[in-house]
Design brief:
Elements lengths: L1 H9 L8 E2 L15 E10 L5 E7 L10 E2 L2 E3 L7 H13 L7 E5 L3 E2 L4 E10 L12 E8 H5 L4 E8 L2 E10 L2 E4 H15 L2
Parallel strand pairs: 1-7, 2-8
Antiparallel strand pairs: 2-3, 2-5, 3-4, 3-9, 6-8, 7-8, 10-11, 11-12
Length: about 200
């Protein structure tokens, strides 16, 4: 079962290794110095077919408008840790009560082209939660089966032009939603770590 494998993986000690979309290119990655720390919550509902919580961001946001994303954002001065930041953002964006999240651990931080070093925080939540999208930030809250998201056959490598350069990135299609960029990259990274179990 995918959730059991995720639990087993995060129970093991490991040394975090920053990664990002640069992993798909032949150019060296940017240094992590100077990147803004941020965190996202990879919330998995504990049910017979575990589901991964995702959002679609509103179109009026300055960054990543309309994209599929995990709840999350930058580390604020009042956050005690990156885990606290992920829980705070999830509460603000989709009204997910922090006390209902069982934190399993964190994954390798992800460098983004927009200047962030994002730490994915993995947590398990009860099934059937009633979540509410914050209208200023989130257009839609939805779920993708964890098994579908982690299946390498659903990971498609694509490329496009960004700031005059060819950039490579992952996409994961589910129904009418296309997960891409950093969000897909974090899912692919988790999938590949699970392959080593």
């Amino acid at each position: 079962m995918p959730l059991d494998r995720v639990r087993s993986l995060l129970a093991r000690p490991f040394t975090p290794q920053p990664h990002g979309d640069w992993d798909l290119m032949h150019s060296p990655p940017p240094p992590t110095d100077g990147l803004m720390p941020a965190a996202v919550l990879m919330a998995i509902s504990e049910e017979a077919d575990p589901q991964l919580l995702l959002t679609r961001r509103t179109m009026h946001l300055k960054r990543h408008a309309g994209q599929v994303a995990f709840p999350g954002g930058r580390l604020d001065a009042g956050d005690a840790s990156l885990i606290a930041a992920a829980l705070r953002e999830a509460h603000e964006e989709v009204a997910l009560p922090p006390n209902l999240v069982n934190i399993l651990g964190t994954l390798d931080p992800y460098r983004t082209g927009t200047g962030f070093l994002v730490t994915p925080v993995v947590g398990v939540v009860p099934p059937g939660l009633v979540l509410r999208a914050h209208p200023d930030e989130v257009d839609e809250v939805f779920h993708v089966p964890l098994a579908h998201a982690l299946d390498p056959s659903n990971h498609v490598r694509q490329s496009g032009q960004w700031q005059g350069e060819t950039r490579h990135y992952w996409t994961i299609q589910h129904d009418r939603h296309v997960i891409w960029g950093a969000t897909a990259g974090m899912i692919v990274a988790l999938s590949r770590r699970l392959e080593g179990l």
